[in-house]
Amino acid sequence: xxxxxxGALNAALSILLGAFAAHGLKQRxxxxxxxxxxxxxxxxxxxxxxxxxxxxxxxxxxxxxxxxIAGKLMxxxxxxxSGSLYLLAATDLKWLGAITPIGGVSFIAAWLTLAVGLWKYxxxxxxx
Length: 128
Hints:
Blueprint: H1 2-25, H2 31-59, H3 64-91, H4 100-120
């Protein structure tokens, strides 16, 4: 249930940040910075839904160990990828762009971990 709650909270936060960008930052950021911020919002929202999927898989005991790892990687990706893009857009600190790919790799690893877990999953095999 923790990943379901984290997903729901992150979905709400991504909508809040998207609305903030559209209404509060539109006058303060140039088009490039606004696009960077929106990329962060998009990936934040996608992975909020991914966290909810992870929560449902764990709740239904479908590849739960892989799903837990995937959920942690998604949370790390949201923080590193989206977080660095939010800060980059707001502060123009270019070095933040160097850490963004770490979050992207975390997202990719999350989905690959989930894919492996689902590929290996057998309904009659007990998994911790």
